[in-house]
Design brief:
The chain has a 9-stranded mixed sheet with strand order 4-3-5-6-7-8-9-14-13, sandwiched between helices. It has a 4-stranded antiparallel sheet with strand order 10-11-12-15. The chain has 2 domains: 1-323, Rossmann fold (3-Layer(aba) Sandwich); 327-424, GMP Synthetase, Chain A, domain 3. With 429 residues, it is an alpha/beta fold. A hairpin with a 5-residue loop joins strand 18 and strand 19 (366-374). The chain is 29% helix and 24% strand. The protein binds 5'-O-[hydroxy(phenylacetyl)phosphoryl]adenosine (DLL). Residues 88, 131, 137-138, 207-210, 230-235, 239-240, 297, 299, 320, 323 line the site of 5'-O-[hydroxy(phenylacetyl)phosphoryl]adenosine.
Length: 429
């Protein structure tokens, strides 16, 4: 049985999208006071949505809207239809709590099974799940998708490295699922313990945070796997599993029969054409408990127009390059951490781990210190030269002066969750 509908055509996807869009707007308008008010204020009526282009008349929703109806924001079904909630910690204020009906949970598992199938995972596989279980959507999502697919789940969660190594070796896991930070931590652990020959891993599925090119190649090399797949998702949009790159790794195929993805300019909020990078805005087509209408993810990516060479009938978006709120201003220049890790990836002398510290000198001028780990096999006596080369490259490409410090391999902290890269000490942080 295949979870990927290979016979879907672009025309059929459009039909499904229009029907789903009309249903979602009507459903939200009729059943949620919040959405009714928002849609009324925008001067739109559900009947006005007659084509996919009409989506532009609908108002945006944003993370602040999740505070309005806390603890059950966007709720569009009777309370007794909710069978579960999940939550993720917002950076400020209250947690984002999202409710699910049985149908929402079933659909999410189905979409997740598609992700596994696309990653070449089948019933004979053994899937070690190394993400958090509980309020966070990650564990529940990876677990439900695995069971739906019929593979064997090894639900270790974010346990210690000892336990993960034991399970990897004894259970002969073939697939490992985690954040990029956790995968790096485990890859180094397996390498240090000399266990790679005793593991049977062939596939790694990473998500929940950006993974630089160098981090990806480091994990691949240390774990000796054939493929690393990028899985995207967010709590508001069920959780992980909204799409995944296929084995050609040309972009992330997303389930356009369940969502409409738009890219907008995050400042002017104008929709951008395919190919242009901007903020991803999502509209759900079949989500019951907490539908999303033009929800601003604040994630930066672009839609890829070129069809993939694989047979998967779903369109693609690019890897997430950052978040609109990741951007920091240093000496009047807007900088995203991804610009820094992209540059660092070009230096073989350094590893994938880095931290950016923003400080203020006594004279009031800002100072950026970039700490980056030496590559595992790079000689320490070249640190000074490497630091100068990196600083010069940043000066040339990003037009700012920085102080680059090379630290020993393994000196920067590893985490099982999402890594924090930027530390802004300018306001006493
Ligand atoms: O991180 C869901 C998830 C869990 C996805 C495990 C994949 C794997 P939240 O905690 O709500 O949900 O965080 C969502 O994480 O808006 C992105 O900024 C970031 N993110 C998620 N997947 C990726 C990815 C989960 N593949 C936020 N690449 C999103 C880059 C990602 N960033």
């Amino acid at each position: 049985m295949s979870f990927i509908p290979y016979d879907l055509t672009p025309e059929k996807i459009e039909q499904i999208q229009l029907k789903g869009l009309k249903w979602t707007v009507k459903h939200a308008y009729q059943n949620s006071q919040f959405y009714k008010k928002k849609i009324d204020t925008a001067g739109v009526k559900p009947e006005d949505i007659q084509s996919l282009a009409d989506i532009r008349h609908l108002p945006f929703t944003d993370k602040e809207d999740l505070q309005t109806g806390y603890p059950f924001p966007l709720l569009s079904v009777p309370f007794e239809d909710i069978i579960r909630i999940h939550a993720s910690s917002g950076t400020t204020g209250k947690r984002k709590v999202l409710a699910y009906t049985q149908k929402d949970v079933d659909l999410w598992a189905h979409m997740f099974a598609r992700c596994y199938e696309l990653a070449g995972v089948g019933p004979k596989d053994r899937v070690q799940i190394a993400v958090g279980y509980g309020l966070w959507t990650a564990g529940a999502g990876f677990q439900a998708g695995c069971e739906k697919l019929g593979a064997m789940a090894i639900p270790v969660g974010p346990a210690n490295a000892e336990m993960h190594c034991e399970m990897l070796v004894d259970m002969k896991a073939t697939v490992f699922c985690s954040t990029a930070s956790m995968a790096l931590l485990m890859a180094e652990e397996i390498h240090t313990r000399n266990l790679v020959d005793q593991t049977k891993l062939k596939t790694i599925i990473l998500g929940a945070e950006r993974c630089s090119k160098s981090m990806r190649s480091r994990i691949k090399e240390l774990m000796q796997v054939e493929h690393i797949y990028d899985i995207y998702g967010l709590t508001e949009l069920y959780g992980p599993g909204t799409g995944l790159d296929c084995s050609l790794h040309q972009g992330i195929h997303y389930w356009a029969d369940h969502f409409i993805f738009e890219i907008i300019d995050p400042v002017t909020l104008t929709p951008l054409p395919p190919g242009q990078a901007g903020e991803l805005v999502v509209t759900t087509l079949h989500k019951q408990a907490a539908p999303l209408i033009r929800y601003r993810t604040h994630d930066l990516t672009r839609l890829i127009e070129k069809p993939c060479d694989c047979r998967v009938p779903f369109p693609m978006h690019d890897h997430i390059t950052g978040r609109t709120d990741d951007m920091f201003i240093y000496r009047a220049v807007n900088i995203y951490p991804s610009q820094i890790d992209h540059l660092l990836s070009n230096f073989d002398q350094v590893g994938s781990e880095y931290q950016i510290h923003l400080k203020q000198r006594e004279n009031g001028r800002d100072l950026m210190i970039i700490q980056v780990e030496r590559g595992q096999n790079s000689p320490a006596d070249e640190d000074q030269k490497t630091a100068e080369l990196i600083a010069a490259e940043i000066r040339k490409k990003i037009l700012v002066r920085t102080q680059v410090e090379i630290t020993g391999y393994g000196d920067l902290p590893r985490t099982q969750r999402k890594s924090k890269r930027v530390f802004d000490h300018r306001n006493g942080d």
